Queue: 3 jobs
Job 1
Amino acid sequence: MDNKRRAASSFVFLCGSENPTRARVAKMYTARRKIQKDKGAEPSEFEETVAQALFDLENTNQELKSDLKDLFINSAVQVDISSNRKAVVVHVPYRLRKAFRKIHVRLVRELEKKFSGKDVILIATRRILRPPKKGSAVARPRSRTLTAVHEAILEDVVYPAEIVGKRIRYRLDGSKIMKIYLDPKERNNTEYKLETFSGVYRKLAGKDVVFEYPISETA
């Protein structure tokens, strides 16, 4: 009889709320709905951490709760910008990009608190299509060309700032670097990230870009 009682109490302990391991697993499982990877692939440990952060914000932040309810991400990766600077690049579904932009400033602010010391960049997931074969009747949408996707990524990287000008400079070795001028209206939300913008865009598009604000002329 005593053996049965001991077995029963052990079962309650393992399956009940007192088991911290079970509680962590259950929490992570519920956070899984905040990430949906292509072809049902398993998320990495870092991606699970980002999904958990979104899940926690949805359940604890009243300002973001209703907006985050139906949102999820596709992937997340940590990018080294410099020896002492890192960024968290989060890819979100293209069809949800407008919903994410609606809460962009607030969401990024809260995520950067959770990933202390790291800049957070949100990018819409886009796919580049190869040019159709010669003679093919299938037309490729312009939005799926390499150039168009890279331009769209550039706009995502600097959001909420808008791009107001571009200039290409050629180095002595023949290589080129693009200067991007950003609208100063969002300077307070973006200036501290200019180095991150350059590093993330180089990582995603393989192009060197420098971000600046236009110099205002005073009378």
Job 2
Amino acid sequence: MAAAARVLLLRSGRPESVSFAQSVCGLLGAGPELGPWPTHCGLQRGQLLLSARPFPGASARLPLQPSPPGTELPTNRGVDLGVAIVLQSSDQTVLLTRRTRTLRVSPNLWVPPGGHVELDEELLDGGLRELWEESGLQLPQGQFSWVPLGLWESAYPPRLSWGLPRYHHVVLYLLVVSQESQQQLQARIQPNPSEVSAFMWLGPEVAAAVAATEDGTDTPRHLSQDLPPSVLAVELEHDGGAHPLDLPLSTLLRTTPTTTEGEERVSTGTKFALRLWLQHLSRRGVTPRPCASGAHVDPGPAKEEQNVGPLTPSQGSGKPSA
């Protein structure tokens, strides 16, 4: 089946495929504002069905965020589908991995585990498979819950100064909440060195600082001078070992550079997902614990909040509750 069939739009009552050159956000009627826009979503096996209006079978109402404007796309290909797993430990930290420098797409970027979904896979199953392939983590059935967070329309390279886009995806971010603590999960991590060069766990306070530097937003506000100068990560070695890494916080606060590809930073889509994760915690009354220094970061106005409908997490595998 052609790649165009991975993302379908419900327009005039019929599902339609999207070509590589078309903007999913634009076809759904998004305006010139930065977004995101509320989008009704059907999570189907190996596919996404999207609509600007409610439709029978829609299982979630999610915020859809486009890449920064100014991208031109070729016309002879379709839009592909990816799933990323925002894995949350029981003590409210999330896992990010740094992609290796040798990968063709998004080298040296910090992202949650994820990748392509096969045509015969449920979207959650595809995300959990990617989590296992990249981190070695397999989550025991019945010991986690999950909920869709949002959608990100992505073109790579993200800037024309880096060359014409070679990839066009809609990425579905799924929040998977484990019953295990960060320490328990970390004890079982076995990263794939062909895809992952380092990993780390972010708590809400540092995640808020990172999310506040999302491309296309205002200059970050309320970044306290008391924030830790570095974040503890684990870096893989060529011989298969690993060592602790004090990663400068300034590295995580970088935005997309104009001309340099491969600069270490957190991807723009990941920052969007972190904002949605923080809003998810806030709606459930979770107050971010302060840093050791007592710092607290205000991530700024929750502009996505109005676009997220209430969703009940599902236990284990299967489809989410409506």
Job 3
Amino acid sequence: MLAKFNHKTASSTLSGISAARFSLQRRRFSAAAALRSDAIFVHRDTSENNPNIPFEFNSKSMDEAQKIVAKYPPQYKKAAMIPLLHLAQKQNGWTSISVMNYIAKFLQVPPMRVYEVATFYTMFNRSPVGKYFLQVCTTTPCQLCGSSKIVETIENHLGIKVGETTSDKLFTLVEVECAGACINAPVISVNDDYFEDLTPEATVKLLDDLKAGNAVKRGPVSGRNNCEPQGGLTSLTTPPTGPGFMVRDDL
């Protein structure tokens, strides 16, 4: 009985040692916690988003859609899916299940093909957004130039948090990765327009002008025309030299 007991104890101890050694040998690729997307990639019918809500292109969108499809061979017209989804979202304000089903019918493809695209690209808003869709870039260059302060300013001024919409349905605020305007950081995309070189004060003025329906000027708010140095040119300040400059006379 004693020998049998010892055998089991030894076996259990060896198993524990093996498991511990295996655990020590496992190494994670990252020490940071795994982040999970806040987007839901499945559809759930709601009162504002279900297949029974009709959607179709209006006459203006239909004309544009026909021009888009005409760019592709008939057997490859499904390649027009992304620009057509953009067109539909611009008309509808967001990409509902009815929009996706309509585009599938328009291109004569299975609806799943459209669902795959619409859930992959984050620029397709699958939930309703406000009239002014505020996308604040918070990638490293913008962070270094104060994008966190811009987000904080918008949240405080509008009384919403990132991912929320104001009660009057005017503004929706989200954070995005690189807007591609690093030299003009920090930057906000309002629908299709960029507003750059922002400060908290300039951001509040922009929001107030949008809410009041005033005309707003796209681009840098700092006085720059595009992305030239704010303090003036530091190179290429003289006329370019002509042919032969710094070349030996005997050549």
